[in-house]
What we know:
The complex is a heterodimer of chains A (about 775) and B (about 700).
Chain A: H1 14-26, H2 35-38, H3 48-55, H4 60-84, H5 88-91, E1 95-101, E2 106-109, H6 122-132, E3 145-148, E4 160-169, E5 172-182, E6 211-215, E7 218-219, H7 221-229, H8 234-262, H9 264-288, E8 292-295, E9 298-302, E10 307-312, E11 315-319, E12 322-326, H10 343-358, H11 367-370, E13 373-375, H12 394-411, E14 434-438, E15 444-448, H13 482-488, E16 491-499, E17 515-521, E18 527-532, E19 555-559, H14 563-569, H15 578-584, E20 591-595, E21 598-603, E22 609-613, H16 628-636, H17 642-647, H18 662-679, H19 683-690, E23 701-702, E24 711-718, E25 721-728, H20 740-759
Parallel strand pairs in A: 10-23, 12-13
Antiparallel strand pairs in A: 1-2, 1-5, 3-4, 3-6, 4-5, 6-7, 8-11, 9-10, 11-12, 14-15, 14-18, 16-17, 17-22, 18-21, 19-20, 19-22, 24-25
Helix pairs in contact in A: 3-9, 4-8, 4-9, 7-8, 8-9, 10-12
Chain B: E1 2-8, E2 12-19, E3 22-29, H1 35-50, H2 54-60, E4 63-68, H3 70-77, E5 83-88, H4 94-97, H5 109-113, E6 130-133, E7 136-137, E8 143-145, H6 149-161, E9 166-170, H7 179-191, E10 202-204, H8 205-208, H9 214-244, E11 252-254, E12 259-262, H10 274-290, E13 295-300, E14 305-310, E15 318-319, E16 323-324, E17 327-328, E18 333-334, E19 336-339, E20 345-350, E21 355-362, H11 381-387, H12 405-420, H13 424-448, E22 458-462, H14 466-477, E23 481-484, H15 491-496, E24 500-515, E25 520-521, H16 525-545, E26 554-563, E27 570-574, H17 583-601, E28 612-623, E29 646-650, E30 659-665, E31 675-676, E32 679-682, E33 687-690, E34 694-698, E35 704-708
Parallel strand pairs in B: 1-4, 4-11, 5-6, 5-9, 9-10, 12-24, 13-22, 22-23, 30-32
Antiparallel strand pairs in B: 1-2, 2-3, 7-8, 11-12, 13-14, 14-19, 15-18, 16-17, 20-21, 23-35, 24-25, 24-28, 26-27, 26-28, 29-30, 31-34, 32-33, 34-35
Helix pairs in contact in B: 3-9, 6-7, 11-12, 11-13, 13-14
Amino acid sequence: MTTIDDRPSTSLTPQEQQWVDKFMDETTLFLGPDPAIMRDHGIAPRSAREERAIVAGVDRLQVERIRKRIAGALDEGYEMCEAQGAAPGAKWGDLTTAIYTAAGDVSYLSCHGVIAFSAILHHPIRYIMKYWKDEPTVGIHEGDGFIHNDARFGNIHNTDQSMIMPVIRDGEIIAWVAATIHEGENGACEPGGMPSGSETPFDDGLRMSPFKIVERGQLRRDLLTFLQHSVRDPKLQLADLKVKITAVRKIMERVDKIIDEVGVDTFVAALRTTVEDVDVEVRRRISELPDGTYRFDQFMDSTLKENILIKFACKVTVKGEKMTIDLRGTGPEILNRAINSPLCSVKSMIMQAILAFWWPDLPRCTSAMSCIEIISDEGTWADASYDAPMGQSLQASFRGFSAAQALYSRMSFSTPEKYSNVVANWFNQINTFLWGGITQHGDTVGNLCADLNGMPGGAKPFRDGEDAVSPLFCAMADTAEQEVMEEEVPFMQLVSKRLVRDNMGFGKFTGGMGYEMIVAAEGTPQWGFMTVTSGSKFSSIYGMYGGYGCGTYPLAMVKGTNVYEHIRRDSGKFDLSIEKVMNERPFEDGRYATSHMGLQFDIAKDGELYMISQGAGGGYGDPLERLPESVVKDAELGRISQKAAEEIFGVRYDAETFRLDVEGTRAARDAARGARLRRGKPYAEFCAEFVTPEPPKDLHYYGSWGSDTDDITATVFTIDGPQRVTAPLKELPIVMVPDRREVKIARLEERVRELEDKHGEEVRRKS
Amino acid sequence: MKRISVDIGGTFTDCFFVWDDQYVEAKALTTHHNLALGFNEALDLACRRAGLDRGTVLQEVDSVRYATTLGTNALIERKGPKVAAIVTHGFEDTIPLSRGRGYGEGLDYSMQQNLPAAERPEPIVPRRMIRSVKERVNSAGKVVAPLDPENVREVVRELVDAGAEALVVTLVNATENPVHELAIQEIVLEEFPAHELGAIPVLLGHQVSGRKGEYVRATSTIIDGFLHEIMFHALSQLSNNLRDSGYDKPMLVIHNSGGMAQMNSTDALQTIHSGPIAGVGAAEHLSKETGLGHVISTDMGGTSFDIGLVPEGGVKHYDFLPTIDRWLVSVPMVHLDTLGAGGGSIATYDRIHDSIKIGPESAGSNPGPACYDRGGLRPTVTDADLLLGYLEPDNYANGYIKLNPKRSRFAVEETLCDPLDMDVLDIARAIKDGVDEQMAIGIGKELRVRGYLPEDFTMLAYGGNGPLHACGVARHAGIRRVLAPPFSSVFSACGAGNMKQLHFHERGVHVTLYNPTSRQLYADYAEFNAVVEELEARGREDLVRQGFAAEDVKYRLELDMRYGNQLLTQAVALEDINRMNGVADVLAMIRIFGDVYSHRFGASSAAPEAGIRCNTVRVASYVDGDVVSFESLESGGERTVPTEASRRDVVFIGHDDPISTPVYDHSALTHEHVVPGPAIVTTENTTYLVEPGWRLEPTRQGAVWFLQD
C-alpha cells in the first residue's frame, strides 16, 4: 500500500530531464526573446577557432592593415546605403554597416553613422545562431540574409531594420556582415514608425524577430509582399531592402577578397584581437577615473498622453578598472503607454555616450562597454518586459545617454588625460514633426522631418555650446533642405529653424540654442502631424556646475483657420513666431491651444498652424560669471531678452544703443550675490525644510523617492481611482493608465449630471 | 596652335607653353603679393626654353588660360568684403545654423566624429548682417505671401547702415519663381543706383544656382559675393599685366566644372579647385588621345592625395554639392576626392592596437617633416622615405629644400621605437607601406562605389610625391600599370591647355518619368522641352557673349535621376537625346538610367518599381577648340638598360636587408630604355621609385611607365 509519505520524488534524473527538455522543445508555442542573450552585453568568450588563430601568432601591423581595409569596405557600404536609401533616415545618415565575429560581437562599425548599433546587433546574431542555425526548417547557408527590427530581440527601436548575412568558409560561419537603416514607417498605429499613441505592443507596427528573407541569394518575394502589405509605404520597404542587400553584398565581396589574401585564421584573429584590444583599453581608461560613486537622476514629465513624473535613476560606481552602472530605482513600466524601452536599447544609448562623448577615438566595438556591469531590474520603463509597448522607447533610452554623458563629465573633469572636451548635457529630445497622409503627388506616406537632428550642444568649460548642431545619436547627421522637402510632402515650414529668444541653458558659458518650426499643410486631401517629445513641464536637460538646464517648451496650435488665406490677403500677417502668434493672436477665426508635446496623430486642415521648438543644451557655470560683453552681444542679436540679461546674468545696458553699463552691472551682480548669501542656509537646515518622505500627494509619481532605491513609488489606477503605492518593484501592481478619452467622457458626464441636478432637468438618454 | 596655360598653386606657378609643335614646361615660385610677377617669371623661362621673347609670344598666342587657387586662399584667409544677406521670413537662422553637417564639413573624419569638440566655422555672413523679408513662394512657384516693397526698402537700408559691402538675396523656392528676388534687386538699384557712390553689388541666389536647396544655394551665393571683388581685382591685375605685354585677347579662366570662360562669364565660385580639376581634364584628354582606357588620376603632394576618376567613354562624375573650405555649396564640380595622406602625414603610436597610425594630421610645409629641420619633431611619410634611402638629402624639390636624415631618425626613435619595440628601419617600412595602402584603399573605395574595379584602371601618378609612392599604391590597389604622364611636373597647366569653353546651366524640376502608384509614364513633353530650351538659350547666350557664333555651340543634355525617394541623384548624360518627343524617349531615358545605376550598384539593385524621378535638368553648352597632341605612349618592345649614374643602399618593402640599388638620371633616359626594379630615377622635380617586381619604361614627351613584371 502506498502512503502519503511514499510520494515519488519530483527531482528529475538526467535522463528524465532530457525527456522533458525534448518535449518542451517540441511543444514550444513560439520563440520569444531569450533572456540569456538579451541581458548579456559582454563579448563572447574566445571560440576554439579564435584561440587557435591567435595562439598561432598575430602580426599587429598586418591586423592593422586588415582593419583599414575592412573600414574601407564598411564605408563603401555605408555610402551606398546613404546614397541609395529612400528613407529620410538613410539620407541624413541614421544607419550603419558593420562586421561581426562569428559569435556576433561587433568588431568594426562604419566610420560614419549611428554608433549605438555597436552595442546591440550582437543580440539578433546570437539568436540566429542559437535558434535558426540548426533548425531544419531554417538553417544558415551561403547567400542567406536575415531581416530584423524588433527591439525586444536587440535594436535601438523598431524603426530600424537590419539585413544580416553570414560569411561562410568551408561550411563554417566565420563572421557576419550587416547593414541597418532607420526606415521610419513600419505600419505602427501612427505613421512614421515611432508611435506615441501605441498602447499595446501590437500598436508598434512590424515586429520582426530575426528571420530569413534572402534564401541562398534570392530575395523571398512572398515575405517581401507580406512586409509591403504591412506598412504604409510599400515603395520604401522594397527599395531600402534592396539597398541593404546590395550594400552588404558589396562589403562581403571585399571581405572575401581579404580572406583570400590573408587566410581564414588571420582574418578571424584580426576580428577578435580588435574586440579584445578595445576591451583592454576600456579597462585601462576606467582605471584613470577617480574611484567613487556618481549619481544622476532624471525625470520625464509625461506618458506622451498624460502629465506624470517618472524617474530614470542612474548611479555609477568606479573602483579601479571596474565600473558599475546601476539603474535601480527607475520608475516602473507603464503597460499601456509607449514610453517603455527594453534594456538593450538603453544600453545602446549608454554605448552612444561612451563612443561619441567619452572616448570618440575608440574603435566602435561591442567590447567598448563589455566590461562595464549594468544593474537593472526588469519591469521598469528602462527595462521593460515583453508585453510593454515601446513605440517611444527613445524617451527612456535617450535618458540613458544623458546620464552617461553627464556623469562622465564629472568623473573625468580632473583626469590629466582627456579624450575630448568636458561638455554639459546635450539636448536629448526628438523635437520635430512626424507626419503622414496623401501627398500632392497622390502617394501615401508616413515619416518625420530631419529637423530633429538640430539638437543643441551643451556648454563647455571654456566656450558656449553650439546652437542646434547635431543629434546626440549620430555625428554628421544631415538636416533637410526645406525646398527639397516641400517638393515631396504637402506642407510648408512657414518658420524654419529660427532660434528662439531665451531658449538656451544660461550659464557662464551658455548651452546651445534651439530653433522653432511652424508648419501648415497645403493642397492635400488628407494630412496629419504628431509630436513625440517630453520636457514641456519638467526640463529634460540639466545644466552643469551652476549652469541652467533647458527651459520647458509647449506645443502650440492654431486650428480652425487657414493662414495661407490670411497672408495672401495681407502679407503683414506673415510675421510668425510662437511668441507672437500665441500672444497677439493675429488670425481672428483661429482657435489657439497649447499642450505638452505628446500629440497623437492629428488631422491637419490646409493652413492650420502647428508650432514647436527645439530645446536647448545645458549651460556651464554661474551666469553671474559670464562676460558682461557677451551678455550684451546676445541681447543685441536678440538671443536673450532684456529681462534675462538683467535677472539671470545681472547685466545692465542701454536697451537703445546696447552700451554696457559697467557700474550698474557690478552693482547688480553684487546685489545678486548678496541675495544668495541671505537665502543660503546650512545643509541640515535645508534638508529639514525641503526633504519630504514622499512626493506631493497630487503628483502622479513613478520611481524611487530619494536615494533609497529598494522601494518604488507609483500611482496605480484601480476601480476606485488613482492610488499611490510604495513597494519593491516586484511587488508593485501592474501600472496601466486609464484611457484619457474615457476619463474625459466620465468627467463631462459627471459635469452634465451636476448641471442637471443643479437646474432640476431630467433627460432620458438612449444609452 | 600657340597657347599659354598657367596654374598658380600655393608654392609654384606652373606654365605649359605650346608654340606650334613645341611643348615647353616651366615653373617659378608663386609670388603671393603680386601673382603677375611669378606668372611672368614662369612665362619668361618657358620663352627662353623655346628661344622666343615674351612680347612676340603674347602678341601671337591664341589664348592665355589660367587656373587659380586665389579664391580658395581668399576664403581660407577670410579676405573679402562685408557681405549681407536677405532671406525669406522664417529662415533667418538657416545660414548661420547650416545643415546638420555644417560643423564638420571640410574636416577630417576624427574631428567630424568628436561631437564634444564640434564647433561651426566663423561665419562669412554673421547673424547681424542677415535680415528677412515677408514673402513666400511654394514649391510649385506659386506666390503664397506677396513681397512688400516697403519692407524691402527698410531692410536694405538697415543692412547698408550696418556696413554691407555686398548684398546676397536668397529666397525660398526662387528657382521655381524668381519674381521676388528680381523685385528686390530692382528696389536696391532704385535706392542705391549703380552710378552712385555707395552702390553695392547684388547677387541673386537663383542666378548662381538653379538647384533646389535654400541653404546650399545661399552659401554658394555668399561665397560668390565674398570672393567677387578680390577675384575681380586679382584677375584684372593679371589681365592688365598681359595687356601691358601686348596680349589683346580676353584672358580665359578655368572652371571647376571642367570647362573655361572669359572673365566676364566667370563666377568666383567656379574657379575654386580649378587647378587640380584641370589635372583631371588633362588625364581625360590623354586617355582619349592615347587609348589608355579607364584612368584614375592621382596627385600626391605634401598634405593631400587627390583622386580623379576618368572612366573610358567620357562618363562624367560630378559633385553637385561639393564642400569648399568648410562650406557645402551647390555648383556642378568635376568630382575630386581628397585624402589626408601626403609626404607630411604624421605617424603616431596607436596605443589601442599597439600599432602605427598615419595621418590625418599633417606637418604641412611648416614646420614640415622632421627632416626639413624647421622644428618638426614628429616623424612623417617623407621622413620614412628618406630613412629608407629613396630621397637624396641634397636634391629634394629641385634642391629648394635640404633634408636632414638625423632629424628623421631622431623623430622615429623618440616617438615610435620604444612602444612598438621595433627598429627605425622596420618602422619606416611600416609607415611607407601603411600610407601606400591607405591611398590604395581610397582609390578602391572611389572606384567600387561607382561600380568599377581598380584592376581595370591605369593609374596616373603626378605631384611631388606621386611617382615615389606609385608602385606601392598600385600594388595595394591591384593596379598593374602606372603612368607618370607627359609634362607631369606641370600636368594641371597642361590640362588647362585642353579645356573647352563650356557652361553648365541647370534647373530643378519635378518630373516623374514613371509613377508606380498611378502606373503612368511622363507625358508632358512640351513642359520638359521648354526647360531644355531655356537652359540651351542661357548657354548659347554665354558663348555668344564671348564671341562665338551661335551655330558653333554644341549641347549635351544631362538629367539627375533617382528611384523613388532616394537621396542619390545619379547624373545621366543623354548623348543622343536632346528633346522628349514621345514615349520612346521616356523609355530610353529610363533604360539609360537603369544601365548606369546597375553598373554602379550591381545588377539587382535598380528599383524602378518604386518610381523613377528626374530632379534636375542640366545642359552643357560648349564649343570645340584645338587641343594639345599627346604622342603615343607605347611600352614594351626592344629596350636596353641605361647606364646607372650612381648606386646606393635602399630598403624596400618585403625585403629584410637593404638592396644596393642603381640610381639613374631621368634626363639621360629615352623611350628605348628600360629600368628594371629595384631602381631610383631622379628628375628635376621629383623621384621615381621603381620597386622590386616592377620596371620603368620611358616613353614620349617625358612620360614613364611603371609596369608590374
